[in-house]
Design goal:
Elements lengths: L6 E6 L18 H4 L6 H6 L1 E5 L14 H7 L3 H10 L20 H10 L4 E7 L26 H11 L3 E7 L6 H8 L6 H18 L3 E5 L6 H4 L1 H10 L8 E2 L31 E6 L19 H13 L2 E7 L9 H17 L20 E6 L2 E6 L21 E3 L5
Helix pairs in contact: 3-4, 5-6, 5-12, 7-8
């Protein structure tokens, strides 16, 4: 069944909705205080976001966005063979940067695509583990998109285009870098020194906040060191107390090896995380249209691309369990979003135009999944309860055992869109 052909039921119940306030006291640099900060309400209401992985890894565009690590860190033979066959002898990873041209990058078109996909927020790669910054960072000399490659402020351009359309703008940022000498020095010192953090990580994060005022910081690359090495609690205390986005910014849970699914504004837990029951903390499921990579890769096969039914299925399950759904695409080095990715995003947007009432600003209901069906899920909004069924019953009879009807119950049915 095509995604736009899925059905939606609307029932009435007595369940109310609640709101969260972003206001609060000053926060101290410890997790007990920081974790008590209410999550700004816009994030829970938004529900649907688009993730964009773009960087120098888009030049070799093979294997995954971890190309450099697989090639020079793990010394994987297939990556070494790929470079020998496609690039001149002696090629280094730095030689890829000038080829990261972004010559076809049109931020207005990207932003329109994301809007048409139904996104209420966008998370863009400001810096991946390779260390290349997609803005002219003062602490990433000659290894940034202004000094080399595109010679453009990619973060600034996309942020402006996205916000014109009232879409919230978030930034992915990797705390660590695979081969930065200061990070390797700290690692060799068992993270007892913090040269990399003081000279690179924290100055970058401050730049991003002060210059671009992101609505969301999607932290990553935390897993080798504890939060005390990253000075995470000190940074977050400043972010929540004194930064220009202190009342609105949202952060995830990747701030140290001990933080995932425990500390932070909302939880990612792990890539493509899906709980089996309703969590007691706000969470996000991040997924990628290319099932094997976050960045663009030329060796992607059609069977490795999620179909639209799977995307809608992931979305509905996530929202029913109270999460947000962040769907990733990886552009080419020129700045093109592949047609197959565009098609999937537009299919998502088409479905949301019909069924978004049951998604945006919704809340989990007392039951998340219908007992009699593996493909019927519930959400709610005020007194309304939505039953979203992904597969129409073969006998044309849909049985819902979870709702308890009364004389006041009203039933509304969305027509199936073909």
């Amino acid at each position: 069944m095509a995604a736009e052909g899925l059905w939606l039921l609307l029932l009435l119940s007595c369940r109310g909705s609640s709101t969260r306030s972003a206001a609060g006291p000053r926060y101290s640099p410890d997790w007990s205080s920081l974790d008590a900060r209410p999550l700004p309400g816009w994030f829970d209401a938004a529900k649907v976001g688009i993730f964009v992985h773009w960087g120098v890894f888009s030049v070799p565009a093979w294997g995954s966005e971890w190309f450099w690590w697989h090639w020079k860190g793990e010394l994987q033979p297939d990556y070494q063979r790929f470079v020998r066959l496609h690039f001149p002898p002696g090629t280094s990873y730095a030689d890829f940067a000038p080829r990261f041209s972004a010559v076809d990058f049109e931020p207005e078109k990207w932003a329109q695509l994301f809007q048409d996909a139904g996104a209420r927020y966008v998370v863009f790669t400001s810096k991946h583990h390779e260390g290349f910054t997609n803005w002219g960072s003062k602490v990433s000399w000659n290894w940034n998109s202004v000094d080399t490659g595109p010679h453009r402020d990619l973060v600034g351009e996309l942020g402006e285009a996205v916000r014109k359309r009232n879409i919230s703008f978030g930034l992915y940022h990797s705390l660590f870098e695979w081969f930065h000498p200061l990070y390797l020095l700290d690692k060799n010192n068992s993270f007892k020194s913090q040269f990399f953090v003081s000279e690179k990580t924290l100055p970058e994060l401050s730049e991003l906040v002060l210059r671009y005022k992101p609505d969301l910081i999607w932290s990553d690359g935390d897993w080798e060191a504890p939060d005390t090495y990253w000075n995470s609690t000190s940074f977050l205390a400043w972010l929540y107390n004194d930064s220009p986005v202190k009342d609105t910014v949202v952060v995830n849970d990747r701030w140290g090896i001990n933080c995932s699914c425990r500390h932070g504004g909302y939880y990612n837990c792990q890539d493509k995380f899906e709980p089996g029951s309703l969590p007691d903390h706000k969470w996000e499921m991040c997924s990628s249209v290319d099932k094997r990579s976050w960045g663009y890769r030329s060796n992607m096969q059609i069977f490795e691309v999620m179909n639209e039914f799977t995307i809608i299925q992931q979305l509905v399950r996530t929202i029913s369990y109270g999460g947000n759904y962040l769907l990733n695409v990886g552009p080419t080095k020129e700045g093109q979003i592949a047609p197959i990715f565009q098609e999937r995003l537009l299919a998502l947007g088409t479905w949301l135009k019909v069924n978004g009432e049951a998604i945006y600003e919704s809340r989990p209901w007392r039951t998340q999944k219908e007992n009699r069906s593996e493909e019927t899920w519930y959400t709610s909004k005020g007194p309304a309860v939505y039953a979203i069924f992904l597969v129409w019953p073969k006998d044309n009879v849909l049985t819902l055992s979870s709702p308890v009807v009364s004389a006041r119950t009203q039933l509304a049915k969305k027509p199936r869109r073909r």
